[in-house]
Amino acid sequence: MFNLPFNELALGQRTRSRGRTITETDVVNFCGLTGNWLDIHADAEFSKNSKFGQRVVQGGLVFVISNALFGYDGGVIEAFYGVNNLRFVHPTFIGDTLHSEAEITGLREKGDKHGVATARLQAVNQHGEVVMSCDFSVLVHRERVPGCIPITGTFTGVAA
């Protein structure tokens, strides 16, 4: 998600990811991986009669994909630190294309070599609807780890 070391991050910096379409294969594989074979995810006929009228992508899958869309830079990110206030505010369906948006909302030092960066993370579908929102935190190196090749893209600008 972040590709800048802690010492280069600032409150209000924002970024937007590339997009990704959620496929039936994604949903079926996630069912198999997690054992979450609830009818609303796995049974098209059952889901036709649900309040959504079709299968709904698992919230856990939306969360995993939406934060991973930014990519992880091993020269900067030490570890996933936590998530708070996770909400699925609109259903995601097979065939939806999501992108993610993040704004840094918190920075705190964590020892001599790290800091914790928190961002308001939102997954947004092709209709501009926010489908998931959370406060996402990562443990970040203060300085880039030597020898790691940086990923492209960056947080830009500071919100007014």
From TrEMBL:
InterPro entries: HotDog_dom_sf, MaoC-like_dom, MCH/BMMD. Residues 13-118 form the MaoC-like domain. It holds the Pfam family MaoC_dehydratas. It comes from the Bacteria. This is MaoC/PaaZ C-terminal domain-containing protein. It comes from Polaromonas aquatica. The lineage of its organism: Bacteria, Pseudomonadati, Pseudomonadota, Betaproteobacteria, Burkholderiales.
